[in-house]
Design goal:
Radius of gyration: 21 Å
Number of helices: 7
Number of strands: 18
Strand content: 25-35%
Order of helices and strands: EEEHEEEHHEEEHEEEEHEHEEEHE
Largest sheet: 9 strands, mixed
Distance between the termini: 13 Å
Structural class: alpha+beta
């Protein structure tokens, strides 16, 4: 059992209404943090008023990119109970990413204890309104001040809480996706399978260009510029006449928790689901033959996001007439009802805050 010091805010912030919640722009009253050094191990467990971090200008995170994060959610169910969705999945994925980035990772006990204390302290930010949730951002960075290419020996772990509504301003309206056929987000053997900050920095240029063209997100292809990998904020699924396909995890695709959840749901229903290599050549060919029924993305932030249009090599391809497909809608409702406690959790994904 770790001891967490609590230094609480003298004045609490007003909580925005659900309609005013823009994703990732509001933060709760407090945050959790702890530090690692080779001499002390993990220490300095504390909850304190939300504020700024003071770091040495030579901290390794600034110069060598040792930064890793996770995205999780907490919900207030209709019963009033506070729950999390698959927190162990996020811990395990962060642990794998930390090893890849040579960052010391807190134990699961530290991770869950800090999360539990912070959520308990700031539970008023977990809104019960439809569409609202509390986004959780555990983060791990190298803080040792030095100039030299080696892993940092001093680490900071912290957790932020942010109340959110829908990720996209259009809610569950189909998104328009720009297919990037020049730049590459990740390559085999690289960092594509981790939630490293460097992955997102690499995506900004193409994302900015896509938005200038009126598109919501970028669909990334592999180094051959044909194999489909993922969208910047979500994994992708393609629904054909007799098969649901998502790209196989090849080392450059993030293993999304919502992706895994959708696969489990579909397989429990006896659906024909494949994890395999899929190319834009195949997608366009099946679209032209009328065999592409719908497409959608999955992610913690978006849950299920239907895809209504693809822009690729100067052509536009409407999917399902640009409308939300029935499978996208049903999956979104299924997962949302589980998270809200309206249906039985047969997958054991919902973790009550009290049991962390």
């Amino acid at each position: 059992m770790i001891h967490i010091e609590r230094r609480l805010a003298s004045q609490l912030k007003p909580i925005p209404s659900v309609g005013d919640l823009k994703f990732g722009q509001h933060f709760s009253d407090h945050w959790f943090s702890c530090k690692f050094s080779e001499q002390k191990g993990w220490h300095g467990f504390q909850i304190e008023p939300y504020g700024t971090i003071s770091l040495h200008p030579a901290a390794s995170v600034f110069h060598y990119g040792q930064a890793l994060f996770e995205g999780m959610k907490s919900f207030r169910q209709q019963s009033g109970d506070i729950v999390l969705f698959r927190p162990e999945y996020n811990y395990n994925r962060m642990q794998e990413g930390a090893a890849r980035l040579c960052l010391e990772m807190p134990s699961q006990e530290i991770f869950m204890a800090g999360l539990k204390e912070l959520l308990t302290q700031d539970q008023r930010w977990i809104l019960k309104d439809e569409g609202a949730s509390l986004y959780i951002r555990p983060t791990l960075i190298g803080t040792e001040p030095f100039l030299g290419v080696r892993p940092a020996r001093e680490i900071l772990f912290f957790i932020l809480l942010s109340p959110v509504g829908n990720y996209y301003s259009g809610g569950r309206e189909p998104t328009r996706i720009w297919v990037e056929d020049a730049a590459v987000r990740a390559a085999p053997g690289g960092l594509g399978a981790t939630k490293a900050g460097a992955n997102y920095a690499a995506s900004l240029f193409s994302s900015q260009n896509a938005k200038k063209q009126g598109y919501d997100q970028v669909l990334w292809l592999d180094v051959n510029h044909d194999g489909i990998e993922e969208v910047g904020t979500m994994n992708v699924f393609w629904v054909f006449n007799n098969e649901v396909v998502t790209p196989a995890l090849n080392g450059s695709i993030l293993a999304g928790g919502m992706r895994d959840s959708v696969l489990q749901i579909l397989r429990s229903e006896g659906k024909a689901v494949s994890e395999r290599r899929i190319t834009m050549t195949e997608v366009i060919d099946k679209h032209r033959r009328g065999e592409l029924v719908e497409a959608f993305g999955t992610g913690t932030a978006v849950i299920i996001s239907p895809i209504g249009e693809l822009a690729y090599k100067g052509e536009k391809y409407a999917i399902n007439g640009g409308k939300t497909g029935p499978l996208s809608l049903r999956l979104a409702e299924t997962i949302t009802r589980l998270q809200r406690g309206l249906d039985r959790d047969k997958f054991d994904w919902i973790k009550p805050l009290s049991l962390l």
